[in-house]
């Protein structure tokens, strides 16, 4: 269109020069002129206004492109038909020279789109039939599927649900031509998160997926078995209303029927007027994508234990066959599509377990020390108050010039207080919560701590105070504290007791110095300390901490390790996907690179020395495990053309052709560190330096994880290791089978619960429990003994040296 306007401008200028300044053109005669040829070969036939096309007209470009339709002041505007030399054509609304409104576009390959356009790009509601007969009908954004929509593959498969950037994302239902269904969460085109997979014969599996593969714990109900309610199924695995699901992008399985209705108003979308621009980003699901994301579970689950003791890939097609005993249910655990554990359960037993768990959580809710705060006020108000207060504090101190922390910044007067009335005030905005008072402790100190971790003030505020809000998660311990998780998983907010607040404030100067001097410290990172006073003078204290499990990898196991034995085991019937296990539940020992292990225990020694100097006890190592599949991942992402009896041999250690070290197998690869190749976005893990590995000549290293990417190895973050499963001496539960003994794992860890002093109350508890249970088994012991026992337990039982 720019070229078209230029042609008319040049022609107008030429006429002006030819006629001279005293000459003029009769406007009426120009309007009657209905044909104009241009020097470059373009031709316009139609109505004019003055010297520009206006009204109805047909323009033919020299390359053969033709537009026949409405014009306004020299631009295509209104309705018209565009035909390109390739055979592509558009018939519909045009505005200002752009495809804009409602229209139908037929591409040269035969694909047809009918729907809305905006500035030459598909945008809004539309239906497209692709050249291979695939059909998408639903919402578009900037030329890609986004929102709610239905995709029909030419082989009969169908997806109904949410889309993002052209891929299945959010909640959705996939229906395969063989009768299988998947109803659950999707991420970036793959099943990812919680879902229910129903087989054509009536059996179904409820569990979790990661990037299209079963990953984590789940329940398999054979065909013909009695089905529990969805609520019971969720409860038995730990996905009830009190628990955050494995994937925040899709937190609910109560999937709505996504019926896409065609809007009555026919407004439009658009793409560039060139046919290449219109064809750009067609949105068709390629055959490769269809094979991976549209593949039924008939080919996505692989495990078979044969007589030789090795494992082979098996199709999942027959796993849902009718069982003689329909009361039998299988509790299974997977790692990237490989089943590693199976436990046979009775349906009645599982139902009782779910009912017992529901009652247990109800009792725990009643016991919670913070629930009493909310008589008449729900948790939403507390979250909103917290967000309002943090937004106010960060906004107030951010303009203050940067400087070193002073002694006065730790003092009793280092506080910011403000009253937040519901109707607003001169200093605070109106809000939908209740009136409350806000207090921020030592704001300059915590600002400096955030700066040490390169946390930008605006990003920190948006993580906690953004529109996506906070997610309430259940308390993993006995404290009854409330926990909130930021929408990007970077920060955890926890309620504190008054005694814990005092301990933190007293130790804050030494804590600040320790974190400043030890960039690799494993101790909890504190980023803010606040108090909310509600009507009736009820006070709620909060601390903002870094989330130690802030990773895109799934955390398959969580352990809270103290080194004591009394009460340090979890009832098996209370274990679910998100349960934090204890010392006696740990059935693995972890072998890591020699240099990595030395770095780890050097830092643990420094951290324990600091905690001992502050008379702190009862802390623990929070350990998160991401297991890699025991088999090479290459075979797991291929279509299921694999012989059922084909054995797979475990990959050994060695070198690739490029000299890269495989550590210890194809679960991941250690590479020399390249700062430009790893993610350095600000977050709770950004400060620590990359670690050196003995196996790579003491070079700084990264870890390459298949299907995820290259990750930075830091102390407590993305640490590679090999987990050896310790077989229990008493195999009392013969119904449970652990299929593997050795796994590649990626470790995440940190020292938590560092706010308990060894005071008079704890000394009395120590005296009482020492007599009743023995002084060596209990958790409450004096600080030096606690630190030594804690370190020795980790060295000998958890991370032993190489034999």
Description:
Helices cover 22% and strands 32% of the residues. It is an alpha+beta fold and 803 residues long. Among the domains are: 373-547, Phosphatidylinositol Phosphate Kinase II Beta (2-Layer Sandwich); 572-625 and 721-798, 2-Layer Sandwich (Phosphatidylinositol Phosphate Kinase Iibeta, Chain: A, domain 2). The chain has a 21-stranded antiparallel β-sheet that branches. The chain is globular, with a radius of gyration of 33 Å. The chain starts with a helix and ends in a 5-residue tail after the last helix. The model is unreliable at 1-32, 239-249, 251-272, 287-294, 298-325, 360-377 and 632-665 (pLDDT under 50).
Q: Indicate the percent of residues in helices.
A: 10-25%
Query: Quick check: average pLDDT?
Result: 77
- Note the overall shape: globular
The amount of beta strand, in percent, is 25-35%
Q: Got a strand count? A: 42
Largest sheet: 21 strands, antiparallel
Q: Would you give the CATH topology of the domain at 373-547? A: Phosphatidylinositol Phosphate Kinase II Beta
Question: What is the level-2 CATH architecture name of the domain at 373-547?
Answer: 2-Layer Sandwich
Distance between the termini: 76 Å
Structural class: alpha+beta
Determine Rg (CA atoms, Å). 33 Å
Number of helices: 13
Supply the CATH superfamily name of the domain at 373-547.
Answer: Phosphatidylinositol Phosphate Kinase II Beta
Question: What are the segments in which pLDDT stays under 50 over at least 5 consecutive residues?
Answer: 1-32, 239-249, 251-272, 287-294, 298-325, 360-377, 632-665
Look at the structure and give the CATH class of the domain at 373-547. Alpha Beta
Region (Disordered): 281-300
EC number: 2.7.1.68
Pfam family, one: MORN
GO molecular function: 1-phosphatidylinositol-4-phosphate 5-kinase activity; ATP binding
